[in-house]
Amino acid sequence: MEQGTVTSLIEEKGTVKGVKYKNKDGQDVKTYAPLTIVCDGCFSNLRKNLCIPQVNIVSHFVGMVLNLENGKLPHPNHGHVILANPSPVLFYPVSSTEVRCLVDVPGPKMPSISNGDMAKYMITKVVSQLPPDLRDPFLEQVEKGDIRSMPNRSMPASPLPTPGAVLLGDAFNMRHPLTGGGMTVALADVVVLRDLLRPMEDFTDAVALTKHLESFYTLRKPVASTINTLAGALYKVFSPEPDQASREMREACFDYLSLGGMYSEGPIALLSGLNPRPMSLVAHFFAVAIYGVGRLLLPFPSPERLLLGVRLLLSAYGIIFPIVKSEGVRQMFFPITIPSYNRGASVVMKSAMFDMMT
Fold first, then answer.
1. Which of 6, 241, 246, 301 has its CA 20 to 30 A from that of 211?
2. Higher pLDDT, 111 or 203
C-alpha cells in the first residue's frame, strides 16, 4: 500500500491506465493498474472525464462544537433536528461533554464569517429558535468565532463509463447531508462493486472489464436513489417556502413521524438503507401528504381548507417529482428493463451463493 496525494489520472487513447501522485517525500510518481477506483469525495478533481458533473450548492452547513458544561441536549445521547426557519439546525453528541451543532444556511452564498455577518445572522435569526438550555452555549461559541462552514452539494449520478476506471461515492453522486446518508450510499457502492469484481479473473482487458462493470451504475440505484430522494425531499419539507401549504406539509411530516410504529419505522428503514425500495419511499411521502390533507379537512371541511389541501398535494408533487426525475424514473422503478441490470444481477447472485458456500 502506498499513500500519496493524487494529482491526475493517466489516460491513453480514452483508457485510464493509472494515476500520478505525490508521495510523502513530495516526489511526483506514476503508478499503473488495470482498474483505478476513483473515490476522492465531494471535492473530486478527478471526476471531470468520468461523469457529467452537475453540481448544485443547495446550502451551507455552519458548524461549531458546544460545551455541555453550560447546557445539555433535551434528549441525551440522541441526535436532534430543530425545525427552525428558514431551515433546520442539527445537534448531536460527539463526546460525553461536547455537542456538534450544524446550522443550515440556505442558498449558494452565505453571510461572511470574517466580517461578522455570520455571527449577526446566528444571533438575530437562529438563537431564539433553539431549545432554551442550548442558547447560552450556542451564543458563547458564536462570540468566540470558532465556527466553520462547508457547502452542501447535490449532484445526480451521470457516469460516463470509461475503460480502466470506476467511480464511487460522493465523487459522482451527492445529496443534501441532512440525513447523513452519504456514507451509507458509499458503503453500499463498495458491496455492489465487490460482488461484481469477485468472479473476474483477468483485469487486463479494459474493454471487457468496462462492459462487465456497466451494471454497477444500475445495480446501485435501489439504495442510492432511495437515500438521495429521501434526503432531498426531507430537506425541502423541513425548509418550507413562505406559503401556508409548504408549512402545513412540514407540520404533517412531523406529526406523521410522531405517530410511531410503522409510521416512523418505515421512514427510518428507508433512511438507513435497510429498505432500498423506492416505491416504499414514494408511498410514505404521499401518505404524509394525505395525512396532512386529513388534518385540514377534519372535523369539518371548508372551501378554504379544501383548497389548501389541494395546494398541499401539489406541493408534495412539486417536491418529490423533480428529485425522482433527476435520479432516473426507469432506473429507480424499472431497473429490470435495463439489460446491464439483468447481467449484473446474475453475477451478484452467483457471488451471494459463493458467500453462502464459503
1. 6
2. 111
CA–CA dist 336, 288 (Å, integer): 29
Cell of 263: 409510521
Whether residue 351 is predicted with pLDDT greater than 70 in this model: the reply is no
Q: Judge if the upstream peptide bond of residue 299 is cis by omega within 30 degrees of 0.
A: yes
Nearest Cα residue to 325 out of 44, 54, 105: 54
* Closest-CA residue to 180 (of 92, 279, 66): 92
- Strands 56-67 vs 36-38: parallel, antiparallel or unpaired: unpaired
Model pTM score: 0.87
Give the C-alpha separation, 125 to 116, whole Å: 14
Distance between CA 187 and CA 194 in Å, rounded? Answer: 10
Give the residue extent of every domain in the chain: 56-153, 175-352
For Cα atoms 6, 186, 336, give the angle at the middle one, nearest 5 degrees.
120
C-beta of residue 61 within 8 angstroms of C-beta of residue 177: yes
Phi and psi angles of residue 108, each rounded to the nearest 5 degrees, phi first = -70, -20
